[in-house]
Amino acid sequence: METSPIVISCQRAWKLFGANPVQYLKQMPEGHGYEDIRADGYIAGVKDVSLNVSKGEMLVIMGLSGSGKSTLVRCFSRLHDITGGTIEVDGQDIMALSERDLIELRRSKMGMVFQSFGLLPHRTVLENVAFPLEMRGQDRHMRRERALEMIRLVGLEGRENYFPRELSGGQQQRVGIARSLAIEPDIWFLDEPFSALDPLIRREMQDEFLRLQELLGKTIVFITHDFDEALRLADRIAIMKDGAIEQCDTPDRIVLNPQTKYVKKFTEDIDKARVVHAGALADPEKTSEASGDPVQSDSTILKLSRQLVHDERAMIPVANSDGAIIGAMDRQKALEVLLGAE
Amino acid sequence: MKTKMILSAAALALASATSTSAMEDSSDPIVIPIHNWSSQIVMSHVVGQILESLGNNVEFVTTDSQAVYESVRLGDVALELEVWEGAFGASFREALSKGGLHDAGDHNAVTREDWWYPMWTKDACPGLPSWEALNDCAHLFATAETGDEGLFLDGPVDWLKHGKERAEALGLNYVVKNAGSAAALWAHIGAAEADKTPVLVFNWTPNFAEAVWPGEFVEFPAWEDGCDTDPSKGPNPNALHDCGNPATGYLKKAAWDGMPEKWPHAYEMLTKISFTNAQIAEMAKLVDIDEMEPEEAAEVWLEENQDVWKTWLPEGSS
Amino acid sequence: MAYVTLNSHYSKTALTRMGMPRWLLIAAVAICATQSFLPNFMIRLPESWIPPSAQILDYFFNEIVINTLHFNELTRWFAEGPLDFMLGFTANLLEGKHRWPFLDDPLPWSAIAAVATVLGYYLGGWRMALLGGGTFVWTALMGQWKITMQTLSVLAVAAPLGFLIGLVAGIVAWKWKWFDNAIKPVLAVMQTLPFYTYLLPAVIFFKVGPTAGAIATTIYATPPMILMTTVGLKKVSPEIVEAGKMSGCTRWQMLTRVFIPSARSEILVGVNQVIMLCLAMVVLTAFIGMPGLGGKLLAMMNSFKLGRSLEIGITIVLIAIMLDQMSKAWVVKLPAHFEKGTPWHIRNKYLLFAIGAFILFLVSAQFIDILNEVGRRQSLSIGREIDGAIKGFLNIDIVKSITGFLRYVLNVWILVPFRDFLLWIPVSAFLLLVVAFAWSVGGRRPAAYAAVFFTLVAFSGWWDRSIITLYSVLAAVFISMLVGIPLGIYASRSEKWAKRTLLVCDTAQTFPSFIYLLPAIMLFGITDTTVVLSIVIFTTVPLARYTIEGLRNVPSELTEAADMSGATRWQKLVKVQLPVALPTMAVGFNQAIMFAFFMVIIAAFIGTQDLGQELQRTLAGTDLGKNFVLGINVSLMALTFDLAIISWANKRKEALGL
């Protein structure tokens, strides 16, 4: 991941809501907390956030409602103008873009999926999916072809002429997804796409989503308030509270090393064995202490549970997908993860 | 249909006549205002149909009978066929002073507006039509609201009929109320009709009501010039309005100042037009009693009265 | 210390919130009681204090607007150019007026009726088809085709014009807050201004005739369109907006492809309102040249033909109900998909069917005369018979004794004393009373408005007439509460009755009010009773309607909870349903007052001594200034109530969490 180019670079970004936010931010004393700002009559939607998203990475931003996660993603696409700091997309400072350039950026590079779908009620499925193409002036035939392709991709063929209200929630969100992909965006924003769906459908849609991502390999910023969903999908998770990022790390490391009390509360009830991979426990410095058959670094501890119980080695070598040994895993530690002990 | 043929024959004759004439009527429509009483509507259609037969374009527009003078003045409508001295004299004179319209001659008709009662009232109060009988009969005209005094229902305030002043000046024991509209007057009479309840209302002639409810005007002290401005006139030396209204008011036509130039032939005819009381009553009857549509009534009238209207046609067309 | 501050805080709120109206009330009573000792100016403002507002306005209109700015030339150009062209076009098609495109014959009635039938079927099935076709068949058979088309030819221009202006103004108001803020009070005044005030300027600026009629209609019908457009655009969900932005919409694309289509429902409700208000003006605009049904109705009334007036009234009601129902069905009708591969002629079968029917009748009418035109002699009008029936009914002894009794009791014992009482109150005391009312109902802001507005009324120089106007309004609203609320409560008990009552309400509302007036006069004479009762017919409608709506929208958990608590019907009604429904009912009450102010002006037709009578008088001359001052007085009084009651209803709704 480290080697991939950075697509979104967000440095010390602020988003304040209130009467005169720019002025306020300039004269605000250093170290002013969320409550202090609130006492001054402002709400910190995004508070001093620095964050990079690499190409092909799936970053999940997790937080409870009001934590600022939706605001942050809207700053990335400049649906909100930030109050301070910089946000660059492909090296381009998006706050410096003219209205026309911004429209161009959205027309060519960005796609977004919304929690309540945001479908245009007066347009059919086909017309909704083709909408972004229509906006950028593509000819009728081309956009029809492309839209049909997208509809097929999300598994809605045969429903092209339905209107949104004639579809179930899950189907509507598929339309939303197809629409966001129609222009072949490089960056894909998903704002709680599955939160409005029933638990069963949600699960199904997550699988579908993973399948799509495998196929497309987009750079993704995914918003959710569901920690399980975050763990399931993310390359990296950024946990937000009161507009600020509490911790941003891989799922394994968040589960293993929660850095704040707040993050810890989320991880407490999690079955860590499902989340933690052998790779996360592999210590490269101790490679020499282990011998014998390696385990795969992308296997979860849960998957290895039988082996962990029966294996008698203290240290087990871990190999990556190429077969190269990347380190050794302490069996005792792995068992602790499995048993849920701290 | 027959009328139409006659009319088009007249039009042909005229067309040949006017082709030689230097001044042609404009092809813009001549806008004729129509109001909400039958004789005026039929008369407007009669005139309109004659003008159409002369080759003019004619349009009708429904307007308020008071506000119309402002429209004539501005040239929005070309003419007005019924200017009643009593009812519209004030509006007409005001517009006249502002300029833009002028008097286009009188009809051979007199108008009268005054206190009036339907015939059945006379049975209860035989002293009528003399006004001096009114006080003795006051109790007959009393209603729940007026107590011992009689009720006289005057025309709408904007007709400026000074009923109250007259009742005071002549010492009449009557409450004077203003109806809000002509229709309100008819409803008042209509309500009294079944029981033959005596009623005293403001009314005028020529008017459809004469045919529906035969009646008479109250005879007040005869009108003297200045009765409304000089207290010494009339029986009460200290009061204005102590006479009846003029029993022979004029009925005029009015025209927009631009009309003679724009439609010289039509204007010439307008100045010649003259209806009599009987003709006006006849036109009203066709609609009010015979239930014809105004256009139809106009056709019928034209057919039956060719000798009358043919004399109005402009020079060289008859 | 803490105790003391707490205490003073309490007493302060008590003084300002609860106490102030009471103090004002006491002061008002004190002024009334001692009025014989008070200086004259506290009782009635002396003439010399009255500013010459009418003359100033006249000067403004004549010297500035007309002679200096030549504004009238611009409006005249519009009226005689584009507007006249459009009106001429529709008039040529519908009634054969001699204008472009100079078709010799107007469209045959049967072709229009056929299209209306197909359209009705498309929108709402057989019932709507029957309504659409039936209305036009009725019109033709009654021999009213031509005048109806004259009316519709103007409405066909006025309504789209109102729609367009309303849409654009609504968009501008939504986009720019300052415009919204500026236009709101203007709209409020426009909606309360009596129609007589529109008429004279319409004639002067837009030429007597269909042009002035169209403009007056448009002005009257536009405000709700503006409001509904703004409401609809504001309601578009932020996610749809963001979806549009993320799809790379430009501003224009956002407006035309995202906002306006998403606000469809509200915008169509606005369209419905425009149509209904246009129809409400059909009769009133006849005073300034609107051709057709209105003019005919007035002519019929003036020759005392009740039956034929009634037939015209029915036509107007039918057209109103038809357009209302069709436009409402259009709001509800959402697009449904066709399966893939459905051929064009199936997808557009209604269109094809309508065109087919149109052509069929267009051609048949060339051969079969009756399909083209129903002559007066062929028509089925039974005006005379109706006349007889009405007169007969009014002459029944029981009817007469009941109305006679009512007339006596209402007039002599209630209305006239009430009017004299209001007139007896000194101006200063009246101001205090109004402010006290507004304060206790709506709070400080409405109270401040009330003070300003009624002071203006006092200084207009038309105080007594204003009070008489107000008296008719109050008396009528009070009586309609006694009728409308119990009616609403009763009707809301079952779905069926609620529906029926609402239908009756709709019909009563669209029936041209002028027609009520003549029978009312015949029943009650030219008295205050007639005036008040003819207002009551109108004001009862919103009271009943909103009572039904309020009661039927009480959440079912609440009534179920009441049932489970063992409440009797009466307890449930009084303790649960009415309190929850009250804010909605207040809206109805408010509308009743607004309707009353509208009707009281029309009642001048009967004969009153109020502002309406004076207004009617200004029509004769060219007193624009006086006309406007009188109109504004009505508007100011209406707005005082509007602001207070709406503020109360909103607070109350908030408190109930609705």
CATH topology of the largest domain in chain A: Rossmann fold
Structural class of chain A: alpha/beta
Q: Give the low-pLDDT segments of chain B.
A: 1-6, 9-22
Task: Kindly report the average pLDDT value of chain A.
Answer: 90
**CATH homologous superfamily heading of the largest domain in chain B:** Periplasmic binding protein-like II
The largest pleated sheet of chain B is described as:
3 strands, antiparallel
| Category by helix and strand content of chain B | alpha/beta
Estimated helix fraction of chain B: 25-40%
CATH architecture type of the largest domain in chain B: 3-Layer(aba) Sandwich
Greatest interface by residues involved: B-C, 59 and 61 residues
Q: How many discrete structural domains of chain B?
A: 2
Overall outline of chain A: globular
What is the CA-atom radius of gyration of chain A, in angstroms?
22 Å
Helix content of chain A: 25-40%
Number of separate domains of chain A: 2
In CATH, the topology of the largest domain in chain B is named: D-Maltodextrin-Binding Protein, domain 2
Beginning-to-end CA distance, first to last residue of chain B: 20 Å
Poorly predicted parts of chain A: none
Number of helices of chain A: 15
How would you characterize this protein structure?
The complex is a heterotrimer of chains A (342), B (318) and C (658). Chain A is of the alpha/beta class. In chain A, 39% of the residues lie in helices and 23% in strands. Chain A folds into 2 domains: 6-270, P-loop containing nucleotide triphosphate hydrolases (Rossmann fold, 3-Layer(aba) Sandwich), CATH 3.40.50; 273-339, CBS-domain. Chain A contains 15 helices and 14 strands. Chain A has a 6-stranded mixed sheet, sandwiched between helices. In chain A, a hairpin with a 5-residue loop joins strand 13 (315-319) and strand 14. In chain A, helix 6 (140-153) packs across helix 7 (169-181). The radius of gyration of chain A is 22 Å and the shape is globular. With 318 residues, chain B is of the alpha/beta class. Chain B has 2 domains: 2-110 and 249-312, 3-Layer(aba) Sandwich (D-Maltodextrin-Binding Protein, domain 2), CATH 3.40.190.10; 112-217, 3-Layer(aba) Sandwich (D-Maltodextrin-Binding Protein, domain 2), CATH 3.40.190. Chain B is built from 14 helices and 10 strands. Chain B has helices at residues 2-18, 38-53, 68-74, 85-98, 119-124, 134-137, 163-169, 182-193, 209-212, 259-262, 264-272, 277-288, 294-304, 306-309, and strands at 30-34, 58-62, 79-84, 101-106, 112-118, 150-154, 174-178, 201-205, 215-217, 251-256. In chain B, helix 2 packs across helix 12 (277-288) and helix 12 (277-288) packs across helix 13. Chain B is globular and about 65 Å long. Residues 1-6 and 9-22 of chain B have low confidence and may be disordered. Chain C is mainly α. Chain C is 81% helix and 0% strand. The longest helix of chain C is centred in the C-terminal third of the chain and has 34 residues, at 569-602. The relative contact order of chain C is 0.10. The interface between A and C is medium-sized, with 38 and 25 residues.
